[in-house]
Amino acid sequence: MSAKTLQRAALQQALQWLKVGKAEALLVVKLDRLTCSVRDLGLLVETYFLAGKWSLMSVSEQIDTRTAAGRMVLHILEAVSQWERETIGERTAEAMAYKRRQREYTGGEPPYGWQLAADGVHPDPHVDEQAIIREALELKAAGLSMRKIGAQLAARDLLPRQGKMWNPKIVRDLLQAEVA
Fold it and tell me: Which of 9, 111, 133, 170 has fewest C-beta within 10 Å?
């Protein structure tokens, strides 16, 4: 399970063993497998390992919370780990935004009116859907409501991708779709 949460069955069982005296320490191979949150680590240290009754030990980082130095190193490493995760997240978001600005495929279904090009990276106009967008825009320019635009499109057997009926929200999204 992800180290993003402390609500993991095996971790909760290990912490329970500490509480009832079945264990004296929690040994982890690597700290990032325990938690990836400075807040959660602080909560664990404060609740279980600060008073010295139980110990937290990490094999990879050679941390032992039985000493003040071990607790300090623990907090420094966890802060650096969180910074690293956040930096990776920021870089990923920036890279995805750049790809979208370059009109490159970033995953998921291409927006209405577009299809994935043969290169698998760039979108190409979807001819039939582009025609539906243009028709919807003409109906809007003629003063029809969202509901009436949907009814007109359905009457001409022009349906959304999922084959359902047009509703005002889908029509509104359609009118905001990019025209090639």
Answer: 9
